[in-house]
Amino acid sequence: MSTTTHSRLPRITAVLRGDDERVTPLELFFDLVFVLAITQCTSLMADEPTWAGVGKGLLVLGVLWWAWAGYAWLTSVIDPEEGSVQLLIFAATAALLVASLCVPTAFGSGGLLFACAYGVVRAAHIALFWIASRNDPQLRRSVTGLAASTLIGTGLLTVAALLGGDARVPLWALALTLDMAGPFFFGAAGWKLVPGHFAERHGLIVLIALGESIVAIGVASQVTISAGVVVAAVLGTVVVGAMWWLYFDVVALVAARRLAHAAPGRERNELARDGFSYLHLPLVAGVDLVALGFKETLRHVGHPLPVVAASALLGGTATYLLAHVAFRWRGVHRFSGDRLVAALVCVAVLPIAVSVSALATLAILAAVLAVLVGYEYVRFAELRGRLRHGTAA
Predict the structure, then answer these.
(1) 9 pLDDT band (50/70/90 cuts)?
(2) What does the alpha-carbon distance between residue 346 and residue 310 come to, in Å, rounded to a whole number?
(3) Backbone Cα Rg of the chain
(4) For residues 91 and 128, is the Cβ–Cβ distance under 8 A?
(5) Residue 90 CB coordination number (10 Å)
(6) Structural domain containing residue 187
(7) Number of folded domains in the chain?
(8) CA 32 to chain centre
(9) 271 and 187, same structural domain?
(10) 8-state DSSP, 300
(11) 343 and 209 within one domain
């Protein structure tokens, strides 16, 4: 169904998405540019391996994530490959690429360019939503509220770039907080989404983030290939494989089904907002921290990890697991005690990690996740079989 109406002057048009749940190639192209942003956040933290550097990297990741999440909502309303929408999507992709290139200097000389490029990404998003809501007053009210919170967040990033100095980090934190809090103020009832498409889009971005952690191993291994480096690469693959299994084996199926069965309107939109837009951020952030841990592990194979790097590796895994606990509770109101225990074990290993070799720390982490996967595979074998064969209620 097209939003095109007859008028004397031509207008930019958008084709509303029907019940088609497939993710389009243009959306995947946009996501591949976003993966560069994730990689750049890892590089920012690796170049400044301090608590301050990690904090900056996570702030940039949060800001970029919120922009990406907005496009996930947008393309669940309109078809990105129809009408004039393609041109604006390509413009937003180019702006996102520029913003990604500025990430390493976002808190320095590249701050203003980052803010400007980011503003273009968000402006294109609002413009497309405004076009899509022409004949939907309820959606138009929601877009108006989103435009206000977007303007505030982008404006604060610009002010931070202009002020410079110690004011940048607090202003970034305030910008991210106010921007992400916007949906609580203008409500969730007016939004629309296609459940299968929305869930698949978020699953693919988790997959992309996991792939970026593998890339981190490859980039960090640009040294002499020793036996220790080979073992670290294998153990890193075990860790990433376990993280993949924890999300895609059952969780992604349950989440998509729960979203599809939620009542359209406020219930479904709030579930999508909380479970996907909000709680997938710590999932992706956890993977990004693990990628940082991988980089540092390859650099310190035979030596203990610095405390920040060890915290990134183990704390990132714990963050990923805790996000799963919260995601499951928000979706189906069930508590995942086994994943909570595994997260606590990761935190408990931290004092050991700073006194043993990085390779030993990675081996311990791989063992913890392997035990968790093995336990869940056996403990929930019957339920898992029903879910994966489509016979569960």
Answers:
(1) very low
(2) 10
(3) 21
(4) no
(5) 15
(6) 22-192
(7) 2
(8) 13
(9) no
(10) S
(11) yes
